[in-house]
Amino acid sequence: MPDNSLIEGVAAPLPIANLDTDQIMPKQFLRIIDKAGLDRGLLYDLRFDEHGQPRADCVLNQPAYGGAAVLVGGPNFGCGSSREHAVWGLQQFGIQVVIASSFGEIFYSNAMNNRLLLVMLDEADVQRILADVANPATNRIALDLDAMTVRSHSHQASFTLGERHRRMFLEGLDMIGATLTQREEIAAFAAEHGARRPWLKDVAHKTRQALNTQAP
Prior knowledge:
- This protein is an alpha/beta fold.
- The protein has helices at residues 21-24, 44-47, 85-93, 105-113, 123-133, 163-171, 175-180, 183-196, 203-214, and strands at residues 6-14, 70-73, 97-100, 117-120, 140-144, 149-151, 156-158.
- A 7-stranded mixed beta sheet has the order 4-3-2-1-5-6-7, with helices on both faces.
- The longest helix has 14 residues, at 183-196.
- It is globular and about 70 Å long.
- 26% of the residues are buried.
Protein backbone atom coordinates (compact mmCIF):
# COMPACT_ATOMS: atom_id res chain seq x y z
CA MET A 1 0.00 0.00 0.00
CA PRO A 2 1.46 3.42 -0.92
CA ASP A 3 2.22 5.85 1.89
CA ASN A 4 -0.55 8.43 1.65
CA SER A 5 -0.06 9.76 5.17
CA LEU A 6 2.06 12.77 4.19
CA ILE A 7 1.09 15.45 1.67
CA GLU A 8 3.69 18.13 0.97
CA GLY A 9 3.78 20.88 -1.61
CA VAL A 10 3.35 24.49 -2.60
CA ALA A 11 0.32 26.19 -1.07
CA ALA A 12 -1.44 29.05 -2.86
CA PRO A 13 -3.27 31.70 -0.82
CA LEU A 14 -6.84 32.34 -1.97
CA PRO A 15 -8.43 34.24 0.95
CA ILE A 16 -11.82 34.89 -0.64
CA ALA A 17 -14.81 34.47 1.67
CA ASN A 18 -17.87 32.66 0.27
CA LEU A 19 -16.07 31.48 -2.87
CA ASP A 20 -18.88 29.49 -4.46
CA THR A 21 -18.91 26.53 -6.81
CA ASP A 22 -20.12 28.73 -9.68
CA GLN A 23 -16.87 30.67 -9.38
CA ILE A 24 -14.78 27.56 -8.87
CA MET A 25 -16.25 25.95 -12.01
CA PRO A 26 -18.28 28.34 -14.20
CA LYS A 27 -21.36 27.03 -15.97
CA GLN A 28 -19.89 27.12 -19.50
CA PHE A 29 -17.52 24.31 -18.56
CA LEU A 30 -20.30 21.96 -17.50
CA ARG A 31 -21.40 21.09 -21.06
CA ILE A 32 -19.43 17.86 -21.21
CA ILE A 33 -20.22 14.16 -21.15
CA ASP A 34 -17.19 13.19 -19.06
CA LYS A 35 -14.79 14.80 -16.57
CA ALA A 36 -11.99 15.58 -19.03
CA GLY A 37 -10.61 19.11 -19.34
CA LEU A 38 -12.19 20.66 -16.27
CA ASP A 39 -8.81 22.01 -15.15
CA ARG A 40 -9.14 24.63 -17.92
CA GLY A 41 -12.29 26.01 -16.33
CA LEU A 42 -11.09 26.11 -12.74
CA LEU A 43 -11.59 29.61 -11.28
CA TYR A 44 -11.70 30.84 -14.87
CA ASP A 45 -12.88 34.39 -14.19
CA LEU A 46 -10.20 34.84 -11.54
CA ARG A 47 -7.44 33.40 -13.73
CA PHE A 48 -8.38 35.04 -17.06
CA ASP A 49 -9.72 38.38 -18.26
CA GLU A 50 -12.57 38.99 -20.71
CA HIS A 51 -10.20 38.34 -23.63
CA GLY A 52 -9.04 35.01 -22.26
CA GLN A 53 -5.64 36.36 -21.24
CA PRO A 54 -4.11 35.28 -17.91
CA ARG A 55 -4.48 37.81 -15.12
CA ALA A 56 -1.05 38.60 -13.72
CA ASP A 57 -2.50 39.36 -10.28
CA CYS A 58 -4.04 35.89 -9.89
CA VAL A 59 -1.89 33.81 -7.58
CA LEU A 60 -2.45 30.66 -9.65
CA ASN A 61 -0.85 32.37 -12.67
CA GLN A 62 2.32 33.31 -10.79
CA PRO A 63 5.41 31.11 -11.32
CA ALA A 64 6.14 30.88 -7.60
CA TYR A 65 2.83 29.03 -7.14
CA GLY A 66 3.04 26.82 -10.20
CA GLY A 67 2.08 23.24 -9.45
CA ALA A 68 0.37 24.18 -6.19
CA ALA A 69 -0.95 21.13 -4.33
CA VAL A 70 -2.75 23.09 -1.61
CA LEU A 71 -5.18 26.00 -1.57
CA VAL A 72 -5.59 28.07 1.58
CA GLY A 73 -9.01 29.67 1.26
CA GLY A 74 -11.46 31.94 3.00
CA PRO A 75 -14.45 30.94 5.14
CA ASN A 76 -17.41 29.13 3.58
CA PHE A 77 -15.27 27.84 0.72
CA GLY A 78 -17.35 25.96 -1.86
CA CYS A 79 -20.77 27.32 -0.98
CA GLY A 80 -23.42 27.61 -3.70
CA SER A 81 -24.68 24.95 -6.10
CA SER A 82 -24.01 21.24 -5.75
CA ARG A 83 -21.95 20.81 -8.94
CA GLU A 84 -19.39 18.05 -8.40
CA HIS A 85 -17.41 19.47 -11.32
CA ALA A 86 -15.89 22.00 -8.90
CA VAL A 87 -14.19 19.14 -7.06
CA TRP A 88 -13.07 17.39 -10.23
CA GLY A 89 -11.63 20.62 -11.64
CA LEU A 90 -9.59 21.27 -8.51
CA GLN A 91 -8.20 17.75 -8.64
CA GLN A 92 -7.37 17.92 -12.34
CA PHE A 93 -5.53 21.18 -11.70
CA GLY A 94 -3.37 19.34 -9.16
CA ILE A 95 -4.97 20.48 -5.91
CA GLN A 96 -4.88 17.75 -3.27
CA VAL A 97 -5.88 19.75 -0.18
CA VAL A 98 -7.99 22.83 0.58
CA ILE A 99 -7.56 24.50 3.97
CA ALA A 100 -10.22 26.89 5.30
CA SER A 101 -12.14 27.67 8.46
CA SER A 102 -15.43 26.38 6.98
CA PHE A 103 -16.82 24.82 3.81
CA GLY A 104 -20.11 24.59 1.98
CA GLU A 105 -21.86 21.44 3.21
CA ILE A 106 -22.52 19.77 -0.16
CA PHE A 107 -19.07 20.72 -1.47
CA TYR A 108 -17.54 19.13 1.63
CA SER A 109 -19.28 15.81 0.96
CA ASN A 110 -18.46 15.86 -2.75
CA ALA A 111 -14.80 16.62 -2.04
CA MET A 112 -14.23 14.04 0.67
CA ASN A 113 -16.03 11.32 -1.30
CA ASN A 114 -13.69 12.01 -4.25
CA ARG A 115 -10.54 12.15 -2.09
CA LEU A 116 -10.05 15.91 -2.26
CA LEU A 117 -8.94 16.52 1.32
CA LEU A 118 -10.62 19.43 3.09
CA VAL A 119 -8.98 20.59 6.33
CA MET A 120 -10.96 22.81 8.69
CA LEU A 121 -8.96 24.96 11.10
CA ASP A 122 -9.79 27.86 13.37
CA GLU A 123 -9.74 31.14 11.47
CA ALA A 124 -6.75 32.30 13.55
CA ASP A 125 -4.76 29.26 12.37
CA VAL A 126 -5.81 29.85 8.77
CA GLN A 127 -4.65 33.46 8.96
CA ARG A 128 -1.23 32.48 10.29
CA ILE A 129 -0.81 29.91 7.54
CA LEU A 130 -1.97 32.45 4.95
CA ALA A 131 0.69 34.88 6.19
CA ASP A 132 3.34 32.23 5.55
CA VAL A 133 2.21 31.07 2.11
CA ALA A 134 1.62 34.63 0.87
CA ASN A 135 5.42 34.88 0.78
CA PRO A 136 6.77 32.82 -2.14
CA ALA A 137 9.87 32.06 -0.08
CA THR A 138 7.78 30.28 2.58
CA ASN A 139 4.87 28.89 0.58
CA ARG A 140 5.23 25.17 1.27
CA ILE A 141 2.98 23.15 3.56
CA ALA A 142 3.23 19.65 5.04
CA LEU A 143 0.12 17.76 6.11
CA ASP A 144 0.47 14.60 8.22
CA LEU A 145 -2.57 12.30 8.31
CA ASP A 146 -1.00 10.09 10.98
CA ALA A 147 -0.34 12.96 13.38
CA MET A 148 -3.37 14.93 12.07
CA THR A 149 -1.34 18.13 11.80
CA VAL A 150 -0.71 20.74 9.15
CA ARG A 151 2.55 22.69 9.21
CA SER A 152 3.54 25.83 7.36
CA HIS A 153 6.83 27.70 7.62
CA SER A 154 6.19 29.16 11.08
CA HIS A 155 2.96 27.57 12.29
CA GLN A 156 1.56 24.14 13.11
CA ALA A 157 -2.08 23.32 13.78
CA SER A 158 -4.04 20.16 14.54
CA PHE A 159 -7.21 19.18 12.72
CA THR A 160 -9.83 16.48 13.00
CA LEU A 161 -11.22 14.09 10.43
CA GLY A 162 -13.84 11.36 10.63
CA GLU A 163 -12.22 7.93 10.82
CA ARG A 164 -13.97 6.73 7.66
CA HIS A 165 -12.58 9.60 5.62
CA ARG A 166 -9.15 9.32 7.24
CA ARG A 167 -8.96 5.65 6.27
CA MET A 168 -10.09 6.44 2.73
CA PHE A 169 -7.24 8.91 2.29
CA LEU A 170 -4.65 6.65 3.87
CA GLU A 171 -5.72 3.71 1.70
CA GLY A 172 -6.09 5.76 -1.50
CA LEU A 173 -9.83 5.10 -1.88
CA ASP A 174 -12.72 7.23 -3.04
CA MET A 175 -16.27 6.45 -1.88
CA ILE A 176 -16.81 3.77 -4.53
CA GLY A 177 -13.50 2.12 -3.67
CA ALA A 178 -14.30 2.22 0.04
CA THR A 179 -17.68 0.62 -0.63
CA LEU A 180 -16.09 -2.15 -2.70
CA THR A 181 -13.86 -3.16 0.23
CA GLN A 182 -17.10 -4.49 1.74
CA ARG A 183 -18.19 -6.42 -1.35
CA GLU A 184 -18.31 -9.75 0.51
CA GLU A 185 -20.57 -8.33 3.23
CA ILE A 186 -22.75 -6.70 0.56
CA ALA A 187 -23.06 -9.99 -1.36
CA ALA A 188 -23.90 -11.89 1.84
CA PHE A 189 -26.59 -9.34 2.75
CA ALA A 190 -28.09 -9.50 -0.74
CA ALA A 191 -28.20 -13.31 -0.66
CA GLU A 192 -29.81 -13.39 2.78
CA HIS A 193 -32.29 -10.65 1.83
CA GLY A 194 -33.23 -12.52 -1.34
CA ALA A 195 -33.73 -15.77 0.56
CA ARG A 196 -36.11 -14.12 3.04
CA ARG A 197 -38.00 -12.10 0.40
CA PRO A 198 -37.72 -14.02 -2.88
CA TRP A 199 -40.60 -12.05 -4.43
CA LEU A 200 -38.31 -8.98 -4.45
CA LYS A 201 -35.42 -10.67 -6.24
CA ASP A 202 -34.79 -9.19 -9.69
CA VAL A 203 -38.15 -7.44 -9.50
CA ALA A 204 -37.12 -4.67 -11.91
CA HIS A 205 -35.94 -7.19 -14.53
CA LYS A 206 -39.08 -9.28 -14.14
CA THR A 207 -41.31 -6.22 -14.44
CA ARG A 208 -39.54 -5.12 -17.63
CA GLN A 209 -39.93 -8.61 -19.10
CA ALA A 210 -43.63 -8.61 -18.28
CA LEU A 211 -44.15 -5.20 -19.87
CA ASN A 212 -42.26 -6.26 -23.01
CA THR A 213 -44.42 -9.39 -23.25
CA GLN A 214 -47.61 -7.35 -23.03
CA ALA A 215 -46.50 -4.77 -25.58
CA PRO A 216 -48.39 -4.94 -28.93
